[in-house]
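Here is one chain, start to finish.
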Amino acid sequence: DWLRAADWGEDEDFYGQLSERRARLVEEFDRPSAGAAMDVARLYIRFGFGAEALQALAKLSPQSPESTMLADAAPVVDRGRVDVGGPLTAAETCSGPTAVWRLAAGLSPSPLDMADDAWRAKMLEGFEALPLLLRRRLGPKAVETLMASGALDAAEAMRLLVDRAPGDHGRRWD
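Its structure:
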């Protein structure tokens, strides 16, 4: 899954990780490294810097399906929404991390998904796997979307996943 943010870096030393990844942006003979640009964008998103991730992704040419998905997810950490017609909007049947990002963007699950226990379990597993910073950032909007969709038990389960995590949960959970 392209939106599995837990795999995008460590919780500590953002600047050290960024420095390492930025050092790889240019390859031999001054060729840009698409892989390094994607790694920089993933790290920015993991730490809640959506606009900066978009800047890193803008340097890629041509865009890949994964970079397009990341570019669609990046504004979610800043604005809590995506542009209609992007890959997140089209990923209606996805579960796990992609479902979490859709919910955080205000995109409601289908009635079939809400009735599917396996979809809900994978969605909650995807949320729990997020780094705490992203759970704090994406959680309130995702819970709001679930509540508006009538999935009150899933919304409560998601809220509890943040409440039970160690550390500061942020003001929106008070």
